[in-house]
Each structure stands twice: as C-alpha cells, then as structure tokens.
Design a protein that fits this description.
The complex is a heterodimer. In chain A, 70% of the residues lie in helices and 0% in strands. Chain A is mainly α. In chain A, helix 7 packs across helix 12. Chain B is α/β, with parallel strands linked by helices. Helices cover 32% and strands 23% of the residues of chain B. Chain B contains 13 helices and 22 strands. In chain B, strands 1, 2, 3, 4, 5, 6 and 17 form a seven-stranded mixed β-sheet that branches. In chain B, helix 1 packs parallel to helix 5, helix 1 runs parallel beside helix 8 and helix 3 packs across helix 6. The longest helix of chain B has 23 residues. Classes of the chains: A mainly alpha, B alpha/beta.
Chain lengths: 283, 484
C-alpha cells in the first residue's frame, strides 16, 4: 500500500510540474562540447563551410538555435528561413558564424544534473530520426530538408523541460522524484516542443508534424507526421544496443500508408550505417 | 486463377492517362476489368509528380506575370522574398484531389475494379501483384494492357539526390524557391521548368549538349521561346559537355563543364529524358522482351508479339504525350476485346507548356519543305490582334503552313498565350480538310486570339496572289517564284 504522505507529496509535485510546464517560454540550452567545437570552428577563418554546417546540422540544439536566431527580426528581413541550407544561402556564411557565436556565447550550457543520460539519448534519437526521415522523404520524393528538420526537432520538448525542471528545483530548493519528472516530461514534451517550434518562427508544417507524431497509420494526419512517426520507430530500433530487428517494419501499417514497398524500405534501412556514423561523429 | 466468378476480360497495369482510358473503354463495352496501380491514388505520375503539379505551378507563374503586364502598373506586384513553392501551389492538393476524384468517379461509374500493388508477369495471362506489405495476389486476364508509363532518366554521371540535385519527380518537393537553379537538358520538360522558374524570379541556367533548346522544333518557335526565357533573366549554355556535377556538402551545386566553366547554383534539376517503367514487369515470363531502350514493341494495334498482351503510352515510347496515350489506351482496349472501335487517325497536336506556350499540329515548316518543296507560310503576330493588345501581349505568332498553291493546309504552329488551346482550331481544320480560304472567310468572335487564324490565312492568300502575279510576269523559260 502506498504511503499516504508520498501520495500527498506526489500530488503536490505533479501540480508544480504541470504548472511549470504550462508556462509559455523555455530556454533551449546547449551541450558544452558541441558549443566549444563550434566556437573553435567559427574562430577559424579557414574552416570549411562544409565542416561548419556539418557540425551545426548534427547538433539538434545548435541547429535549432541557428534557425531560431536566423528567423529573428535582426537577421531575417522578413524571409522565413525553413532550413539550415536556406539559412546559409540567404544569410551567407559570415552571418551564420556570427549567429553561432552569439548562440554559443550567450546560451546556457547544459547542467541537467541527474538527467544527462536522458538528454544525450534524446539528442541521439533525434539525430537518428532526422537521418531516417530524410531517407524516407527521399524515397517518397517529398521535401528532404523539411523531413530532416522535423526529425531533428521532434523531441526538442524533452531537454527543454528537463532543463526547466532542474532550474526550478535549484531556484526553489525542492526535489521532484525522478519518475515523476520523467513521466510528466513524457506527457508534455510533444505539445511543448510543437509550441516552441511555432514560437521560434519555424515552419508551421514542422510544428504540426511534431505535434502529430503519434497516431494510427490510417488516421487523417499528414504524410509528414506519419513519415516522422516511422522514422522515430526506425531510429529507436537502430539505437537499441543489443538487437536490431527491423523485420516488423515490413508489416507496419505506416509503411503501407506511406506507400513504401519492401525494396524501398530495405534501401532506407541500408542507410542505417551512414546514420550511425553521423551520430558517432557527435560523440 | 482468380477465386472469383469469372476471370477478368482485361487487366490494365497502370492508371495513368493510357491505363484509365483503356480500362473505361473496355468496361463500357461490358468487359470485367481490373486496373492495377502501384501508387495509392489513380492517375499515375502524370497526376502525382508530372503534368498536374507542374502545370499548377506554371499557372500561378503565368497568372502573376500576366497580371503585372495587364494591370498596367496599377498594382505593384512583387514576389515576396522567401517565397515558398508550397504557397505558390496552395491549390495543388485541391487540383490533384479533384482530378483523382473525377478519375475515380469515372472508373466507378464504368464498374472498373482496382487493385493497389506492383505487378509482374508470371505467364502471358497471369500477373503477380505485390502489396506494400509483400503480400502476393495472382490475377488472370484474358487480355492484358501494359500502361506503366515512365519515370525521369537519371544519368549516371549526375548524382541525383532528390534534395539538392533533383529530377522532375522531386523538383516540386522544394519548399522554397531557390535563388538560383541549373537545369540540365534542353527538351520539353527542361524548357517548361526553366521558363516557369525564371518567370518567378529564379536565376536559371539551362545547360545542354545541343546548341539550342527545343532543337526539334522549327527554328522560329525555338528562338521565340529562347527570347522570352532570356527576357526573364534565364541563361542557356549550349554545346556543353559536363565534366562534373556535385553538391559541395554545404550550400551549393557546383557544375563544371569540360571547357573549364564553373556554374554554382542553390539547386539543380536534371531533365534529360524519361525511361519506361518496364524493368520490374518481368515481361520475359510472358514471352516478351524489351527493346534496347527498355520499351515494349507493338504493332499498329498496340499488340505485342504475344496475342494476349498489349502495350500503350510511354511504355512504347514516342510520342509520349498524355493525349496520344489516352487515345492509344482506348484503341488497344477496344481492339483487345475484338471491337474495331476508335480508329487512331487524325492529327495529334503537340503542346509545350513553356512560358510562352508553344503548340503545333500537322507538318512542321521544315518537314513541309522536305515533303512538298515550295510552300507558303502565312503569319499573324498575336500582338496585332485586338485581343492580344487587350491582354498586353507583346510577342508570339500564329503561322499556317500550306502547299505551293497556298490552298491546302499542311500544318499550324503557334507561339504565345493559349497556344495549346488555339491549336485545336488548326487541328479541326486539318482533320476536316479545310482549305485556307475557308479559314480566311471564317467569322471568328471579336476580340479573340482565334482571329489570328483569319489574319494568317489572309496572309497566305496575299502571298499566293503575289506568287501568281510573279509567275504571270515570269520569263517563258519558266523561272518560278521562290516560296515566300
């Protein structure tokens, strides 16, 4: 039988977390090693655009920051920037360097004490999801850039809410139970993530796809949302350390809904090594 | 065999223009018809990636440019920076869905059954249909029509990634207009996309191994297209040999030519022809073989060497036009069922949806000279028509090609707004055997672009009179007048 005091404590913790997660603005922190790597690249006038962009692209938080700042009034001049490539083309490499410098110097570095593993896993999953989403889009002749963005941002709510929790705990000298935090974050991460994408003036279709990332294969969600859902599933299977069994996906109703045939799915799965390399390079 | 009451009288593989028309024609004659399609919706690549989406984008581009021209500066219209293709194509899904719904309705009304999956032959009468989940269904058809269409040809030397270097199936997946675009190719699809994007303010460079775009056309049509395309800022690099094309991994496509020229662009489009979707059909299991171009050989009835199997549309090659494919599908289905039905005769017009449009029917000027020697060509400039003036048209022409007598119509060609609509008057005139005087005396509505037919016909009449006068004044030794 559960201790009544624990129940009271749990009830109080839930309300506080719920109230915290219901607020409008959150900070998006950075990982310290990604930030320092990029600072070093930005300071090197001879650094290749490809290397700079690869590093931005591989890091969910940096990429999101760059896109968010690119869309700010100061830089965008009324143009909505919808992808990193477009950001570089429109703003130029020099401006991108400036933005990365601003972002890396001014943004908070992660201090999610007790949740480092969850945050790193979220980043890895997001990158893998982005990789698979790209390949699915390429197969379907849909927008590859959009798919990458949706994949990269689909779980952005998680690190943001975890950081907000840790900050709140520190500021108010309270401690929530780990399970309570993780459960509440899981409940709210999608809606918060979708809202943040919209607040950062990123494309509405990314916000919509992230919001609708869970559902049935036969519902009337957009193909972008179903594509994202399939990519999430594939990335989880790819990153599970002991088994890598993709066979169930050949019977997945999502595959049918997206009109992907077995040979096409196999070609997507064959990109798994490339996606693992991408993740590996960020470690 | 099917586990149903009776086998299918006709199985049609592919639901593009050819396949749909074959299926409906057969069903309307009481046949039990099965239509197989690998995409989720009917229509084929024509609806999903090709004709409908590209012409929808083109229509928006044409409307914007025409509005600017015709509003006489009353409204200052400029494309928003950062214009998204999606916003330009907000109607696209409605157009595609409407077309698919209409097609679906026609198929349902005709009682055509359908199946979703990829088909391959296992015998001259049997097909194995595989679903997305790998499930197999065997169907039996007394007769089978192959209408599998075609897909973009991706040359091995250009690394198409459908993201930065695209083909015509993926080019409209872009969610924003690039600032610059290289188009590889100089044929119909390359020219259509190049002129559409150029008119929307994209810095377009066409690169082709031939000296001019649309080189198969009469030189005046090709030159007219090039003039207009260049007026939008488009560039054409002809006689070009590619050395390398690559995405630099950061933000541009770098194209290097053998002469050392380098062209950088945000994106690239490869439009260097199409290949038939026949490779996955396993036609050998049916006793057929593909040609070395991957096409299916047929006779004048669209019948292969296997009596139960017919093929139509892009799967058999030229002319690879939706209009011709529709007619082929109807004919083949009727013939397969033992009906004489529609006979393929009459002129087939050609329409090219560049900006401006190009259309022709009958003999080209070049072919007419080869076949008939002296010819007379009557011309009307669309800018001289009252309707052309109202529409602020500044370029374009309509030409009637006649034989030496200036009476028999051999061909019509049009460059300008609505060319693909106007050409049908010429088509009807050719099919009905009208002579030029009929056109010269026809009372067209005023003001209309169709009046250009009368103007061009009168030009022919004038020229033949001049030719007759010169002939009457010529030396008895028989100096003849040259064709005008």
């Amino acid at each position: 039988m559960t201790d009544p005091q624990t129940l009271v404590d749990n009830a109080g913790t839930n309300e506080q977390l719920e109230s915290l997660f219901a607020r409008d603005s959150f900070e998006l922190p950075l990982l310290s090693d990604a930030a320092s790597k990029l600072l070093s690249l930005c300071s090197d006038a001879d650094c290749s655009p490809k290397e700079l962009l690869d590093n931005i692209r591989r890091d969910q938080a940096i990429a999101t920051h760059v896109l968010r700042v690119s869309n700010s009034a100061m830089y965008s001049a009324g143009v909505q920037i919808v992808s990193l490539q477009q950001a570089v083309v429109r703003l130029g490499l020099q401006r991108i360097r400036e933005i990365v410098l601003v972002v890396t110097c001014q943004s908070r570095i992660f201090s999610v004490s007790g949740y480092e593993a969850e945050v790193r896993d979220s980043f890895k999953n997001s990158l893998a999801t982005a990789g698979f989403a790209q390949e699915i889009a390429r197969t379907r002749r849909a927008s590859v850039e959009d798919a990458f963005l949706c994949g990269l941002l689909h779980d952005i709510g998680r690190p943001v809410l975890l950081q907000a929790t840790v900050d709140f705990e520190a500021a108010n000298r309270i401690t929530f139970t780990r399970d309570e935090v993780l459960q509440t974050v899981e409940t709210h991460r999608i809606a918060v993530g979708s809202r943040l994408i919209e607040e950062w003036n990123l494309p509405g279709r990314a916000s919509d796809a992230v919001l609708q990332q869970n559902g049935s294969a036969t519902d009337d969600r957009s193909d972008e949302a179903k594509q994202l859902q399939l990519a999430i599933g594939l990335s989880k299977t790819l990153l599970v350390p002991t088994t890598e069994d993709f066979q169930p996906f050949f019977q997945d109703p999502l595959v049918e809904s997206l009109n992907i045939y077995p040979d096409q799915l196999q070609a997507i799965l064959d990109q798994g090594e490339k996606i693992l390399d991408l993740i590996g390079s960020t470690q | 065999m099917n586990d149903t009451e009776r086998p299918f009288d006709l199985v049609v593989v592919g639901s593009g223009p050819a396949g749909v028309n074959a299926a409906i024609a057969a069903a309307n004659r009481g046949a039990r018809v099965l239509l197989i399609e690998r995409e989720k919706q009917v229509g084929g690549s024509c609806v999903q990636y090709g004709t409908i989406p590209s012409k929808t984008l083109r229509e928006t581009a044409v409307t914007l440019t025409a509005f600017k021209r015709r509003s006489g500066g009353v409204y200052d219209i400029s494309e928003r920076e950062g214009l998204e293709i999606r916003s330009l194509m907000t109607r696209l899904h409605q157009v595609v869905e409407a077309h698919q719904a209409t097609t679906r309705r026609y198929l349902d009304c005709a009682g055509v059954e359908s199946m979703h999956g990829v088909a391959r032959f296992i015998s001259p009468h049997e097909l194995d249909i595989r679903s997305n989940l790998g499930e197999s269904t065997i169907v039996y058809g007394e007769k089978i029509v192959i209408a599998t269409g075609s897909r973009p040809r991706n040359p091995p030397e250009i690394p198409v990634d459908h993201e930065n270097i695209m083909d015509s199936d993926s080019v409209l997946s872009m969610t924003y207009l690039p600032r610059s675009l290289v188009v590889f190719g100089g044929g119909v699809i390359a020219s259509e996309y190049a002129s559409t994007f150029a008119s929307l303010g994209v810095d377009v460079t066409m690169i082709d191994r031939y000296p001019t775009p649309l080189g198969f056309l009469d030189s005046d049509l090709a030159a007219g297209f090039l003039d207009q395309y260049e007026s939008y800022g488009g560039k054409f690099v002809g006689n070009a040999k590619l050395q390398a094309v690559e995405w630099d991994g950061a933000f541009q496509v770098v194209t290097t030519l053998e002469d050392g020229t380098t062209i950088e662009s945000d994106k690239a489009l490869v439009a260097q022809g199409r290949v038939a979707n026949t490779d996955s059909l396993a036609v050998d299991a049916a006793g057929l073989a593909l040609t070395d171009r991957g096409l299916i050989g047929v006779d004048q009835h669209f019948r292969t060497k296997i009596p139960s199997i017919f093929a139509v549309g892009d799967a058999i090659g030229s002319p690879a036009l939706a209009s011709a494919s529709m007619q082929q599908g109807r004919y083949a289905a009727n013939f397969a069922l033992g009906n004489s039905g529609d006979v393929v005769e009459g002129a087939t017009p050609m329409g090219i949806y560049t900006i401006p449009e190009i259309a022709y029917v009958g003999l080209s000027e070049a072919d007419a000279r080869k076949q008939h020697g002296n010819i007379i060509v009557g011309q009307a400039n669309l800018a001289d028509c009252a309707r052309g003036q109202i529409m602020a048209v500044s370029t374009g022409f309509l030409k009637l090609i006649t034989d030496e007598t200036g009476r028999r119509l051999l061909g019509v060609k049009i460059l300008g707004d609505s060319a693909t609509e106007l050409i049908h008057i010429g088509q009807m005139a050719l099919d009905a055997g009208f002579d030029i005087d009929r056109l010269a005396h026809t009372n067209f509505n005023f003001p209309t672009m169709a009046q250009a037919y009368r103007s061009a016909a009168l030009d022919v009449v004038l020229k033949r009179r001049c030719a007759a006068d010169r002939s009457a004044l010529s030396e008895p030794s028989g100096l003849t007048t040259a064709a005008i």
